[in-house]
Q: What sequence folds into this?
């Protein structure tokens, strides 16, 4: 008996250990066209794929997350994978958002998924045995393992003597307790999350002619088989023996044909007792049609609280286990087949359970998000009209949920594709990182987020990508050289490329002494090692001494040295070079607004900053309204309070940098090839495999040649170029540059 778990945790003030664990999610869903017919197209992912695969049928997609230490990380990846799947589907395909399938065609028209010959044989056999209808149900499975820290702590402080220092025996006993209590109280989950009140008219003649809470979770009509009732959960020994006997007798093809609400997973069935249970597969959740990902973060947080409570709840006495679990199955059937249109027959038990769960949450100081999830579910027990099964019953039209399901599915797909440069679940990352993650998931690369705050990813177990497309492709020396603008200029000059003339200054006084010679034309003042457009001042015409001094002080505040260069008129273009090839070219239009003749400049800035692709962690940076804005406006004879005339463009910055809100206009196809050669030469001069090269060009259609090299002036080279500005430009054709970067990483 493991009834001292809660006591020991409170004794040592380790209640937090109870809410730790490891989580993974598997979610199935039928691919259908916009009329609700099963898809006849292959899954658009190369198989085998670690995250997206077929379930029973070719039309049935399954998304499977990695295992994470928190529910939040698991749910984040589920959101991202769902978006990748939806974006990959043909335009007329959507994901059916219900556990019960749409109206099915004849069995002959349902294509069984065949990842291997053995897999096809297995699926054909279960189709004959159980029928296609049952196999076409879909569900959400939660894979859960207990925290090793929790288990080791409990074993060492209290349970080692009871189990004769046999940690595996204790470990298995804890999982068995959790399993028994899960089966004992799963009726609570069926009430709270049941969402299959009816089936399509041609699903089966055996289904009831009235609404229920969950056909899928019921023993009579759901995704179960006789074996699920013949395997004992009284002990691990009995579980293994019963399941193995069913396999040996030919009743089951293997453990995966054991359609129980809970499966115990380990190295193998034979080693389950000796090597230990690795995790539980909890298989009885209906797909939530009101959540874009089939379940919500609130549901997952409640699950986390529910499982923690089951571990603390008293164990089922060994001799009573068979009887208790039979009664529990009957309770679940009562709830599953009960009417969603009224109070459950088990209302007293539901209320009692939720009260006990609430007390547990308070006593063990459950995290706030778990307590909030509990409040949501307590409300469902108080008012059955808040349950998904009741809400679905209100959506039935003509005896069917098809119209509702199609409407929900189309809404979810539109949400996924509306902003392709953002990856749901990871919108807190920089736009480049989101695009790389999405591309990696699409390819089936194993992905780890090593540092969420810094945006550092690991792909395919060995490739590390940092902010600004930082990879092993660029050496540390090359990156260092590109960060130093003076070194960059010298290397470019040695390669025969044209760069702006200029000088370096470390003191304001020294630069002011040279002012008379410098200020005969427009100037650019910038930090020698500045990044992201900070500290840069552009004077398109000769500045006054006072303004020049202000610019110097600003540059020297950002760095210890400043460069003063001649201003080069023309348009700035960003060339993205990967492995000696220009993959994209974008015009850098300085941060700007266009007047409408009515609104003040500040209001125009606010309006433009509300555009979907502009903002924090989006492809285009917000337009600035700061001291540098005022300084640059002043040079143009303007101020913030002006009302620009209709169609009149006002530049908020004179420096054209994406980091300070510049618009990216794709010109990849228009740019003359000669300038692309210049960009490649600039990247090679700094020995960069991945580079963003900024070049001033007067006419992108007029070739640069040896007779007129001044037609292309290289302003700067960065080893950490933005990718998202090319994938989602302000105007023009999106360029698949993240795919190009991953191609290069994976082939070298």
A:
């Amino acid at each position: 008996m493991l009834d001292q778990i809660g006591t020991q945790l409170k004794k040592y003030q380790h209640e937090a250990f109870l809410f730790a664990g490891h989580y993974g999610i598997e979610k199935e869903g039928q691919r259908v066209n916009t009329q609700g017919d099963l898809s006849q197209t292959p899954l658009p992912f190369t198989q085998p794929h670690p995250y997206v695969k077929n379930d029973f049928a070719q039309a049935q997609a399954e998304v499977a997350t990695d295992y994470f230490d928190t529910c939040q990380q698991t749910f984040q990846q589920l959101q991202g994978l769902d978006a990748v799947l939806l974006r990959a589907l043909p335009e007329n395909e959507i994901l059916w958002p219900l556990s019960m399938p749409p109206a099915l065609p004849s069995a002959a028209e349902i294509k069984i998924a065949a990842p291997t010959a053995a897999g096809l044989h297995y699926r054909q056999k279960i189709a004959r045995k159980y029928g296609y209808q049952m196999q076409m149900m879909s569900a959400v499975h939660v894979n859960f393992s207990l925290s090793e820290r929790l288990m080791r702590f409990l074993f060492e402080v209290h349970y080692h003597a009871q189990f004769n220092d046999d940690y595996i025996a204790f470990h298995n006993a804890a999982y068995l307790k959790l399993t028994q209590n899960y089966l004992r109280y799963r009726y609570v989950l069926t009430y709270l999350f049941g969402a299959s009140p009816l089936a399509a008219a041609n699903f089966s003649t055996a289904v009831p002619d009235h609404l229920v809470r969950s056909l899928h979770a019921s023993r009579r009509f759901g995704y179960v088989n006789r074996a699920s009732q013949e395997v004992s959960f009284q002990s691990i020994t009995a579980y293994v023996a019963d399941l193995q006997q069913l396999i040996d007798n030919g009743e089951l093809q293997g453990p995966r044909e054991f359609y129980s609400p809970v499966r115990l997973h380990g190295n193998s069935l034979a080693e389950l007792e000796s090597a230990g249970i690795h995790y539980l597969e909890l298989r009885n959740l209906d797909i939530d049609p009101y959540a874009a990902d089939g379940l919500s973060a609130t549901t997952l947080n409640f699950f986390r609280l529910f499982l923690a409570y089951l571990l603390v709840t008293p164990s089922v006495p060994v001799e009573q286990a068979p009887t208790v679990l039979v009664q529990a199955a009957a309770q679940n059937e009562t709830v599953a087949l009960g009417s969603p249109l009224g109070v459950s027959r088990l209302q007293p038990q539901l209320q009692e359970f939720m009260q006990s769960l609430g007390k547990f949450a308070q006593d063990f100081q459950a995290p706030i998000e778990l307590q909030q999830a509990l409040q949501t579910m307590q409300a469902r027990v108080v008012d059955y009209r808040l349950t998904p099964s009741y809400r679905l019953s209100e959506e039935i039209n003509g005896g069917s949920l098809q119209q509702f399901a199609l409407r929900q599915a189309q809404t979810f797909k539109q949400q996924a594709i509306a902003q392709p440069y953002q990856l749901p679940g990871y919108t807190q990352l920089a736009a480049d990182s989101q695009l790389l993650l999405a591309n990696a998931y699409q390819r089936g690369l194993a992905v780890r987020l090593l540092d969420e705050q810094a945006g550092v990813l690991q792909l395919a177990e060995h490739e590390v990508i940092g902010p600004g497309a930082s990879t092993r492709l660029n050496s540390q020396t090359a990156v260092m050289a590109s960060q130093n603008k003076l070194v960059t200029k010298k290397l470019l000059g040695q390669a025969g490329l044209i760069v702006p003339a200029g000088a370096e200054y470390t003191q304001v006084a020294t630069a002011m002494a040279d002012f008379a010679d410098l200020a005969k034309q427009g100037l650019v003042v910038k930090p020698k090692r500045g990044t992201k457009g900070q500290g840069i001042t552009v004077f398109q015409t000769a500045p006054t001494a006072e303004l020049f001094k202000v610019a110097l002080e600003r540059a020297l505040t950002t760095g210890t040295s400043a460069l003063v260069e001649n201003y080069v008129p023309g348009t700035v273009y960003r060339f993205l070079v990967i492995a000696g090839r220009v993959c994209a070219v974008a015009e850098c239009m300085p941060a700007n607004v266009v007047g409408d003749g009515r609104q003040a400049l500040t209001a125009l800035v606010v309006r433009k900053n509300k555009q979907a692709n502009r903002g924090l962690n989006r492809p285009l940076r917000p337009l600035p309204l700061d001291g540098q804005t005022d300084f640059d406006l002043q040079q143009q004879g303007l101020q913030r309070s002006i009302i620009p005339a209709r169609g009149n463009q006002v530049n908020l910055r004179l420096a054209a940098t994406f980091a300070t809100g510049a618009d990216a206009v794709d010109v990849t196809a228009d740019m003359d090839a000669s300038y692309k050669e210049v960009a490649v030469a600039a990247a090679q001069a700094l020995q960069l495999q991945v580079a963003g090269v900024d070049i001033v060009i007067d006419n992108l259609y007029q070739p640069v040649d040896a007779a007129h090299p001044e037609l292309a002036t290289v302003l700067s080279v960065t080893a950490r170029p933005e990718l998202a500005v090319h994938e989602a430009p302000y105007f023009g054709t999106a360029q698949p540059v993240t795919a190009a970067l991953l191609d290069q990483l994976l082939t070298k």
The CA atoms of residues 23 and 144 lie 5 Å apart. The chain is about 40% helix and 15% strand. The first strand starts at residue 21 and ends at 33.
